[in-house]
């Protein structure tokens, strides 16, 4: 069976396991993967904080496992929910229609899990073993809820299983057409998460006599308007500067760079702009619990993201700039502060990816990218400071502008040809890095 067909078969099977999180209930899927990989010749272990939610670690050792790096293939098998009523095909059917394999997890991210597992199984069945180092496959749970039972638990409670020098995970690899160029992003950093509340206070009263009250909503809305109209300042980190340079623009003038990128590809410009500094997105508002009561308190929740390495002080400074004089009428409190992390770009792993792309898609090039959100890579970078973790799942036929929009959306699907393309990459990479 060729790699494309086998990867499609494995992905179809994984989609048919309903692993919507919550509750996750990933055990059945993990046991099936364990059997698949053990049959191929890998050594497997299930380990987790909860019996019904184990993580799977599969290992392919060679003659000198400690004489070289450990290469880890990482992926999560839980998914977000799906409403079948909004889909053209069953979200848990794993069916192929019109050249695409449909289902929840087809993009995020059972497809990558399938390609990584098929590649490891193919190598093992062929009798290949790493001349030095080892190959590990990490299939984890709970990513869609933050990873406390999955990547976080595995890296903190079982570092003996989780330790790796090089890790490939989700977050990059979809081709980005840009003018006459074909670019593949390698995600080398993730923005941090800084969530906060903006609260205004007033005096409650009956809604029939508003002049006798002090409506907290009126004090909150000017701050909301400032956020809506804000052009938050730039904070350009090195990995984003590398991306801008890779697109042929000057990161020293980020506004001009975004304008130039937008003239070629507006969709890409939007992603680049999100990574050139702090973002502040209002997402929830709460005031009175009853329609006939003027609220004494109104709260706005804001999802803030900051470039890797930048902390709450940067977010605070940008928020104060945006709010201006409206800040005097509100209170700001933190809900969450997680600093984003990164991996260096000048590494043998990056070079191997570049070499493979150059051979598999002649004329195409790679560029470092930054994910506006976060993945499980952050747990490996935190637990193992020398670990190089990238997001890369190569897709040649389904571009970023289409694939990104399908994540967590109805009619999620992947071009079947890209399953073979990715599996070929994951099969080839250990031969380059563990030789």
What key phrases describe this protein's structure?
single chain, 435 residues, alpha+beta, 6-stranded mixed beta sheet, 4-stranded antiparallel beta sheet, 18 strands
Which radius of gyration do the C-alpha atoms yield?
A: 23 Å
Mean pLDDT across the residues is 97
Outline, from the CA principal axes?
Answer: globular
**Helical residue percent?**
25-40%
Strand content: 15-25%
Category by helix and strand content? alpha+beta
Poorly predicted residue ranges: none
Number of helices: 14
Q: Write down how many β-strands occur, each being a DSSP E stretch of 2 or more residues.
A: 18
Q: Which strand order does the major sheet show? A: 1-2-6-3-7-17
The biggest sheet, with number of strands, parallel, antiparallel or mixed sense and barrel status, is: 6 strands, mixed
Q: Roughly how many Å apart are the termini?
A: 26 Å
What does this structure look like?
The chain is α+β, with helices and mostly antiparallel strands. It contains 14 helices and 18 strands. It has helices at residues 3-16, 27-40, 110-125, 151-157, 159-162, 216-229, 238-246, 254-264, 266-275, 312-323, 348-360, 377-383, 400-406, 416-433; strands spanning 43-47, 55-61, 70-76, 96-97, 100-102, 134-140, 166-169, 175-178, 181-190, 192-201, 205-206, 279-286, 293-294, 297-306, 331-338, 365-371, 388-391, 413-415. The strands form five sheets. Strands 1-2-6-3-7-17 form a six-stranded mixed β-sheet, with helices on both faces. A hairpin with a 2-residue loop joins β4 and β5 (100-102). The longest helix is centred in the C-terminal third of the chain and has 18 residues, at 416-433. It starts with a helix and ends with a helix. The model has no long low-confidence stretch (mean pLDDT 97).
